Amino acid sequence: xxxxxxxxxxxLNTAMxxxxxxxxxxxxxxxxxTSTWSLITTGITNADGRCPGLITTQMFTSGVxxxxxxxxxxxESMGETCFYPYVEIVFTTNDPGKKYHVPLLLSxxxxxxxxGS
Length: 117
Known about the structure:
Blueprint: E1 7-8, E2 11-13, E3 18-19, E4 24-30, E5 37-44, E6 63-69, H1 71-76, E7 87-93, E8 100-101, E9 104-106, E10 111-113
Parallel strand pairs: 1-8, 2-9
Antiparallel strand pairs: 2-3, 4-5, 4-6, 6-7, 9-10
C-alpha cells in the first residue's frame, strides 16, 4: 500500500463556509529542459474538499508543478456563475522529502492560496 501523498490540496468555499466538494482538478509537472507541461493525474475533491493520493513519493521530484482547478464547473453545479472559470496554482518544490500542502480558498469572485503544512 502506498504511503500518503507528499503533495496535498484542500479546497474551501469561503463564500459558504464549506469544503469545496466535487471539484475537478489536474496536476502537471513542467519539463525543465523544454518548459512543457506533462499531466500527472486528474481527480475530484471529496466531501471534505480534499483529493488524496495526488502523487506518490517515488514520482514526486524537485521541480515546478501546476494544480488546475475547474472552478466554473464547480459553481455551475450549484446554479451559480463565477468570475474565474478555472484557477491554476504554479509552485516550485525544492525538497521532495518534505510535505507540500497547497490549499485553495475560493469564492465566486476571488481566490487565494498559500503553502500550508
